[in-house]
Amino acid sequence: MHLHKFEKLWLIVGSGALVVFLLIIGINAFAMGHTPPSDNSTLDPKQVDQTAPFDQPGLKKIGENEYEAVIVAQAFTFNTGGDLKIPKGAKVHFKVTSKDVVHGFQIPKTNVNMMITPGHVNTLTHTFNEAGNYLILCNEYCGVGHQAMGVTIEVTP
């Protein structure tokens, strides 16, 4: 079959662009660890209150300027076990699950955005480099009180 020289050129350019695109995606996903938030571990959503670490939700210091925030999403609240107050520059490992329905977990103006499904544990790490108040919002409609579902993280200077 005969191909025109411009057809050959476009096939070469298109194939090359596809290879470059797949290489970039592969390097980002595997070598640099840029993957979606995980939900590799599961639990019984009816037993969340008896399952560690969700039996004691809250913010715990786990290292030098490093914290773990264990949060339970349930109809129309985030159970954080108290105030979420951290210093500027702190790295926070969020560990979140839901007891009842699908909820969202989003912190506007950051890259924190997860879908919280009952029975799954989602984890995500974020470093807060600017002081201020950050609002955690539910961005998945979860019922009639959805609009009131939110909690604030205070990042101190």
UniProtKB/TrEMBL annotation:
Q: Which spans are transmembrane here?
A: 9-31
Name of this protein? Cytochrome aa3 subunit 2
**Domain of life according to the entry:** Bacteria
The UniProt catalytic activity note for this protein reads:
4 Fe(II)-[cytochrome c] + O2 + 8 H(+)(in) = 4 Fe(III)-[cytochrome c] + 2 H2O + 4 H(+)(out)
- Keyword annotations for this protein? Copper, Membrane, Metal-binding, Transmembrane, Transmembrane helix
Main subcellular location:
other
Describe its function.
Subunits I and II form the functional core of the enzyme complex. Electrons originating in cytochrome c are transferred via heme a and Cu(A) to the binuclear center formed by heme a3 and Cu(B).
Q: Which GO terms describe its cellular component?
A: cell envelope; membrane
Every copy of the Cytochrome oxidase subunit II copper A binding domain together lies at 49-157
- Cite the InterPro entries for this sequence: Ba3_CcO_II_C, CcO_II-like_C, Copper_CuA, Cupredoxin, NosZ/Cyto_c_oxidase_sub2
Q: State its location(s).
A: Cell envelope
Q: Which organism is it from?
A: Exobacillus caeni
Can the keyword Transmembrane be found in this entry's annotation?
yes
- SUPFAM superfamilies, alphabetized: Cupredoxins
Gene Ontology molecular function terms on file: copper ion binding; cytochrome-c oxidase activity
